[in-house]
Design a protein that fits this description.
Number of strands: 0
Number of domains: 2
Strand content: under 5%
Structural class: mainly alpha
Shape: elongated
Number of helices: 6
Order of helices and strands: HHHHHH
Oligomer: single chain
Bound molecules: zinc ion
Largest sheet: none
Length: 91
């Protein structure tokens, strides 16, 4: 975890992009959370990327659906929801 932050407390764009959703959800531990905040303030690329991600979150609308999708993506679980719905309809 500490490797993401340089000795001067800076993070790279790569780290910011990778942790962007975690950062926006406030899931990161304190040094990384603030380092990313500082980076975004001074980096146009990353602040643009955050805007894009934020818009995407708003388009998704249902926050829980977004989190579920994110979890599936991270855990590489297959999406079984449509199948479950079909079974419920049969019953
Ligand atoms: Zn950047």
């Amino acid at each position: 975890m500490g490797r993401d932050i340089s000795r001067s407390g800076k993070v790279k764009c790569k780290t910011v992009i990778r942790e962007l959703t975690n950062y926006m959800e406030g899931r990161l531990s304190e040094p990384l959370q603030s380092a990313i905040e500082d980076h975004i303030k001074s980096c146009r690329d990353c602040s643009a990327q955050m805007e894009t991600t934020r818009k995407m979150l708003h388009l998704v609308g249902d926050e829980q659906a977004w989190l579920n999708a994110l979890e599936r993506h991270v855990l590489k679980k297959p999406a079984a929801t449509s199948e479950d719905a079909a079974h419920k309809k049969e019953l």
